[in-house]
């Protein structure tokens, strides 16, 4: 961990320079919104997806994206139901979307990759007009819920968003931000930053069960009201702010970055435990074996 005044000054400047390079500006947001509309226009041309809508999720919705970040998009069927769609139907829907994107010149064969047999079938492409890399899935309600919750987490303290961007950038530089090769995905990195902030003294962020006390795993497959989700999260975050008024953690981003690596340097030692951002503490796996199966939060 960096302790000397000189090293802190150098690291602070380095952090500011990195954030200035990777934090998005309004033009980056506009390009992503235009890319969403571009895909929606393609969807509306398909009889097989009549009434479907394109919904963003992931870092764009959470406002935790970088200038070069991918755009996660979910095509949601217009049948008024959030119940699971079988894998075969998802694969066929993505094939139709692929044809529409190619026929309308939105992207080219060399800018597209279809991964139908992944756990969650995905169609990846780059928009020719806007240069945005997109990952399309079908009916990804889990992604929507988690993204919305992270959006509200991100409103509590601006240091959280900065730390997420810094840790993602570090992970990319170390080649450990690629789930296809067995390393961490961006969502896992966000959870590590969240846990770090929950276990700082005093806590910068509350446990997730104090932000959204519902059954997250159950809500993934049940009909849910996003407006109600927003209202619950907003009210609980305001309660956290009031309860912690006057005892705000003032640790600098520079020091939080150093203590992040110090905290997780021995993470391999947690063989019988899990890091739970839901409770904001270390939990024993034997107390709830479903943690190793659900992989929600």
Describe this structure in words.
InterPro entries: MTPAP-like_central, NT_sf. Residues 11-151 form the Poly(A) RNA polymerase mitochondrial-like central palm domain. This is Poly(A) RNA polymerase mitochondrial-like central palm domain-containing protein. It holds the Pfam family MTPAP-like_central. It comes from Zea mays. The chain is globular. The protein is 47% helix and 11% strand. The model has no long low-confidence stretch (mean pLDDT 89). The chain has helices at residues 5-22, 26-44, 59-62, 87-103, 141-156, 158-173, 186-198, 216-219, 226-243, 253-263, 291-294, and strands at residues 53-57, 71-76, 112-115, 122-126, 133-138, 273-276, 281-284. It is built from 11 helices and 7 strands. The strands form 2 sheets. Strands 1-2-5-4-3 form a 5-stranded mixed beta sheet, sandwiched between helices. The two termini are 28 Å apart. A hairpin with a 4-residue loop joins β6 and β7. The chain folds into 2 domains: 26-140, Beta Polymerase, domain 2; 142-294, Poly(a)-polymerase, middle domain, CATH 1.10.1410. The chain has 297 residues and is α+β, with helices and mostly antiparallel strands.
